[in-house]
């Protein structure tokens, strides 16, 4: 039995390991050089296949041992020697074995019960002797195959290393003074909102902070006159308003990648992110900066690496004109992200982060639309950030960018984050789900829904009490 186990399991898993290692080596040669790359990289690294194999190998080993039932290896109650094949299987010691039969009746004198004779007290699906055969000949190989498919088919986005931001040289500091705070605002066809946003932002900041604050608009090559509007604002005296335009030919689009490009361009040590549609009130920026802590490095006393604006909590409100379907989508997005973070509003687009903390963060995915959630997971010290309540308004001009494509990208982003958080267990969970679905489908096809449901509920066709005989101090009753 042991030799057969070694050869069968060894052959299966050696083939899987070789195949996975070849896949990892081939894909490991791909170098991720910039956030603009959209190619998908398969696999989690060179060592990951080995980690995928160990838990599944353990399951196969346990399943094989469980299939070898010792139903015909009973021994005398007076014997003090336990057969080697029953070590680890025996429910009671030699003087404590219950005298029961396969259906609860008492056995003749001298006969004792092993683990297999207690099967009558188990549910119907657990008493089925085919269960162990299913585990070894059906489910577990299927689990291996599904885990392998999950490993190969789950895409990994091209990652952006925040340390690359330090390689970009921001524009020179203005002669009026040093920039300490940068407000990054992604835009696309938001020309009508630019002037009100700039005016409200500088009006809400204290003069000492306003003169050292810049606003960086990151635009996806809008054709509505955004560039001309920024030039007009600069001519009116807002010299610390910058525009970074990403051409269509570059292929880089999306909210998260726009924020990352804005961080590269920013000159301040404190970075604030907000939308251009005025739904994030500029009047809440001072409170957000105060929650972030004083100007300076992360080592300063009272400094936080990240601070979030939240739409939920005491003293906040949402505009009554905000559509119901948007409220439902927002609620569902929060529920899906709840296992990843304790923040009350991880889907917020209104937050502040220290540039030093951003540069020290783990690689990020620039493909999603909720960069704040990724930063919460990528910055270790930001697991419990301070939160600033604010009243969420409605759009005054332009149109919303929320659509089916945005929702789909958010779901894909969540899948990537869960995969990154769970590591190897992600593939085991997905593989187990696929294997369970295939196995259940096969059972339903062969026996029908009713039979599978009865088996799942544990309805027994045999009769007899669950635990018919008691034991007393080693004497059989």
Automatic annotation (TrEMBL):
Instruction: Give residue ranges for domain Glycosyltransferase 2-like.
Output: 182-358
Q: Which pathway, metabolic or otherwise, does it act in?
A: Protein modification; protein glycosylation
Name the Gene Ontology biological process terms. Answer: dolichol-linked oligosaccharide biosynthetic process; GPI anchor biosynthetic process; protein O-linked glycosylation via mannose
- List the Gene Ontology MF annotations in alphabetical order: dolichyl-phosphate beta-D-mannosyltransferase activity
Query: EC number(s)?
Result: 2.4.1.83
Q: Which keywords accompany this UniProt record?
A: Endoplasmic reticulum, Glycosyltransferase, Membrane, Transferase, Transmembrane, Transmembrane helix
Q: Pfam families from the xrefs? A: Glycos_transf_2
Where is it localised? Answer: Endoplasmic reticulum
Taken from the UniProt entry, a GO cellular component term is: endoplasmic reticulum membrane
- Annotated TM spans: 12-30, 42-63, 135-153, 424-441
Q: Among its keywords, does the record have Transmembrane helix?
A: yes
Glycosyltransferase among the record's keywords? yes
From the UniProt record, list the reaction(s) this protein catalyses.
a di-trans,poly-cis-dolichyl phosphate + GDP-alpha-D-mannose = a di-trans,poly-cis-dolichyl beta-D-mannosyl phosphate + GDP
**Main location, first listed in the record:** endoplasmic reticulum
Subunit text: Component of the dolichol-phosphate mannose (DPM) synthase complex.
UniProt xrefs under PANTHER family: DOLICHOL-PHOSPHATE MANNOSYLTRANSFERASE SUBUNIT 1
Tell me which family the UniProt entry assigns to this protein: Belongs to the glycosyltransferase 2 family.
Role, per record:
Transfers mannose from GDP-mannose to dolichol monophosphate to form dolichol phosphate mannose (Dol-P-Man) which is the mannosyl donor in pathways leading to N-glycosylation, glycosyl phosphatidylinositol membrane anchoring, and O-mannosylation of proteins.
Q: What is this protein called?
A: Dolichol-phosphate mannosyltransferase subunit 1
Q: What is the lineage of its organism?
A: Eukaryota, Fungi, Dikarya, Basidiomycota, Agaricomycotina
């Amino acid at each position: 039995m042991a030799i057969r186990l070694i050869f069968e399991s060894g052959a299966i898993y050696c083939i899987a390991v070789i195949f996975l290692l070849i896949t990892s080596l081939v894909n490991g040669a791909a170098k991720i050089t910039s956030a603009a790359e959209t190619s998908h990289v398969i696999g989690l690294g060179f060592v990951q296949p080995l980690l995928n194999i160990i838990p599944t190998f353990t399951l196969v080993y346990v399943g094989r041992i469980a299939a070898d039932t010792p139903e015909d290896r009973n021994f005398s109650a007076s014997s003090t020697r336990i057969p080697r094949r029953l070590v680890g299987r025996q429910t009671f010691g030699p003087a404590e074995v219950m005298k029961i039969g396969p259906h609860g009746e008492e056995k003749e004198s001298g006969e004792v019960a092993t683990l297999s004779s207690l099967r009558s007290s188990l549910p119907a699906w657990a008493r089925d002797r085919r269960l162990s055969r299913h585990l070894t000949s059906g489910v577990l190989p299927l689990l291996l195959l599904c885990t392998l498919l999950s490993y190969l088919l789950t895409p990994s986005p091209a990652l952006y290393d925040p340390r690359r931001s330090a390689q970009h040289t921001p524009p020179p500091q203005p002669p009026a003074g040093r920039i300490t705070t940068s407000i990054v605002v992604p835009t696309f066809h938001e020309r009508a909102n630019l002037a009100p946003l700039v005016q409200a932002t500088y009006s809400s900041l204290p003069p000492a902070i306003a003169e050292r604050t810049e606003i960086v608009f990151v635009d996806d090559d809008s054709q509505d006159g955004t560039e001309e509007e920024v030039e007009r604002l600069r001519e009116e005296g807002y010299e610390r308003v910058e525009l970074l335009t990403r051409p269509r030919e570059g292929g880089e689009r999306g909210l998260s990648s726009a924020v990352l490009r804005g961080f590269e361009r920013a000159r301040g040590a404190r970075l604030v992110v907000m939308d251009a549609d005025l739904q994030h009130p500029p009047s809440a920026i001072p409170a957000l900066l105060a929650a972030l802590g004083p100007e300076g490095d992360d080592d300063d006393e009272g400094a936080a690496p990240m601070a979030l604006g939240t739409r939920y909590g005491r003293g906040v409100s949402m505009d009554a004109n905000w559509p119901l379907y948007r409220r439902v989508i927002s609620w569902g997005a929060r529920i899906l992200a709840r296992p990843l973070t304790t923040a009350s509003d991880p889907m917020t687009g209104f937050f502040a982060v220290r540039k030093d903390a951003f540069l020290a963060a783990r690689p990020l995915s620039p493909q999603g639309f909720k960069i704040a959630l990724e930063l919460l997971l990528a910055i270790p010290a930001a697991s419990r950030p301070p939160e600033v309540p604010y009243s969420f308004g409605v759009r005054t001009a332009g149109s919303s960018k929320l659509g089916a494509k945005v929702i789909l990208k958010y779901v894909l982003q969540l899948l990537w984050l869960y995969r990154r958080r769970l590591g190897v267990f992600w593939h085991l969970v997905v593989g187990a789900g696929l294997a369970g679905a295939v196995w259940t489908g096969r059972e339903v096809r062969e026996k029908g829904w009713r039979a599978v449901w009865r088996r799942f509920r544990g309805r027994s066709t045999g009769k007899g009490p669950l635990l018919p005989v008691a034991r007393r101090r080693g004497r059989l009753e």
